[in-house]
Amino acid sequence: MNNIPEKISAQLEKNPIDWQSILEETIGHFGCSTGTLHFLKSGTSILELKAQKGIPDFLLPKVSAIPIGKGMAGIAAERMKPVEMCNLQTDESGVARPAAKETKVEGSLAAPLIHEGKLYGTIGIAKPVSYDFTEEEIASLMGIGEAICQKIS
To answer: 6-152 in CATH: which number?
Structure first.
């Protein structure tokens, strides 16, 4: 697993894998406060919540099952490319769902979990401040996503 932070790599070697710990290590690695990990439900176009940190309880029903194409995670899955937002609070593109603003996060990045051209889910991270993720950070999150895929495929 090239360029995967050591703590995340070590978590991925555990059996069973603690997906909550993987997500929390990833959030910490990027200096973020909030995140989600969704796995694609087999035979459907629904992303099911596997782990989360920092999502308000009242929003959990809205993020527990996300259709591909809806919201940042769904669009990242549909496009099979990362979706980034400098400030989710002021975004008017329609990519972020209205309820997403209730998370109070600003700088957000959602990446598809892809391995050998196949979609396995999405991982999303966010900061409580406006932030533009660098190309290196985006590539790093994609790499973490691919490492996750290798454990769930």
So the answer is: 3.30.450.40
